[in-house]
Design goal:
By secondary structure, this protein is mostly helical. It contains 4 helices and no strands. Helix 1 (2-28) runs antiparallel to helix 2 (41-64).
């Protein structure tokens, strides 16, 4: 059961990384350079929803698997930051829409979290997960 959960978690992790790269490429505008154009809003919304669901799956599967603390930390960081990206984006819009009355507002905090902090933590967690996975497989071969 443990190896099955680990394999499922690795597939979920890989899917998260692929969706993150596609969404990031669309936000930055890389599609224009490759002749793909921009994705429709419905596609972006559904990808964000799938991204969130996969992130929750990543968190649950990582919590159940017994492995080294460092590797578990990186996988949890990846899942939590991935789940936080759409949550912070939605909170930014909700707070802005409901409570914005002047030049100051708390929605900027959620905006910075969704656009800068959470994606940076996702990349850090993903790279750490990949590196610990590679080093773990190299140790098994020795």
């Amino acid at each position: 059961m443990e190896t099955t959960s680990r394999k499922i978690r690795n597939v979920v992790f890989s899917s998260l990384v692929v969706i993150f790269v596609v969404l990031l490429g669309n936000v930055i505008g890389l599609g224009r350079y490759f002749g793909l154009g921009r994705l429709p809003l419905a596609a972006l919304g559904s990808m964000a929803a799938v991204f969130f669901v996969l992130a929750v799956m990543q968190i649950i599967l990582t919590a159940k698997i017994k492995e080294s603390k460092l590797r578990k930390t990186f996988f949890m960081l990846t899942g939590i930051s991935a789940a936080a990206i759409p949550i912070c984006a939605i909170l930014h819009n909700v707070v802005y829409g409901l409570f914005f009355q002047g030049k100051d507002g708390d929605e900027a905090v959620f905006f910075i979290l969704a656009l800068l902090v959470c994606p940076a933590l996702f990349v850090l967690g993903a790279l750490g997960s990949i590196i610990t996975g590679i080093s773990g497989s190299l140790k098994k071969k020795e």
